[in-house]
Write a structure and sequence with these properties.
- By secondary structure, the chain is mainly alpha-helical.
- It has one domain (5-248).
- The protein contains eleven helices and no strands.
- Helix 2 (10-24) runs antiparallel to helix 3 (28-38).
- The radius of gyration is 16 Å and the shape is globular.
Amino acid sequence: MTLSPRVLWLIPVGFVAQMVDGCVGMGYGISASSILATLGIPPLITSATVHAAEVFTSGISSASHAWFRNLDRKIFLSLLAPGVIGGVIGATVLAHVPTHAIRPFVWSYLIVTGLCVVGRVVLKRPPTLTVGAPGPALGLIAGFLDAIGGGGWGTIVTSTMIARGIAPRYAIGTANAVDFFVALATSIALWTQMGHMRYDMVIALLIGGAAAAPLSAWVTRHVPARAAATAVGLVVVILGAAGLFATLT
């Protein structure tokens, strides 16, 4: 398949998006989806394209995080099934119901969560919640919102886990690992709704993302927890503010 010059620009987009996602556990879907939206790609095709590419990039990323021992098995199992179910439900909703009304609430939630993470680091306060495996509600909600928004799994799951006091290294690595299965389920569900896929876009995003995945996992292992938590909080606030502004204007 020949990639047009316009689509080739998605290769560096995929690289940058995966570096952000692999290093701080969020941002791939939101970054890629935002750019596709500016190109005039419909939401259903955008979400399907990003999730199809994310199946491969998150697979490489999850394997890399497993290699560097950035995973928590208990958290992984608690998020897996709910995340997959939420993704399938969200894909079905996206194909049949307008989603513009719910997006402001998603972005607002992310802003508040990001501010909580940054505030905890700045004030040097211990987590207010007990460390432990997140409940199934987190995976279900995050999977649903990830599907209808074209991304957001890592942004919601990673920031929430860090706000609960889970070490950024394990929050990031585990969120990336579960994301592979959520992206796969969501991609299949969207493909069955559409009946076709923009494979040229998928390949372009995949090339850039696959190159960045191992590097980002190595960076995660060596970044101090305080710096990683700060980065997570700032990324969430910026993405949430940008998304809310774009939605309301």
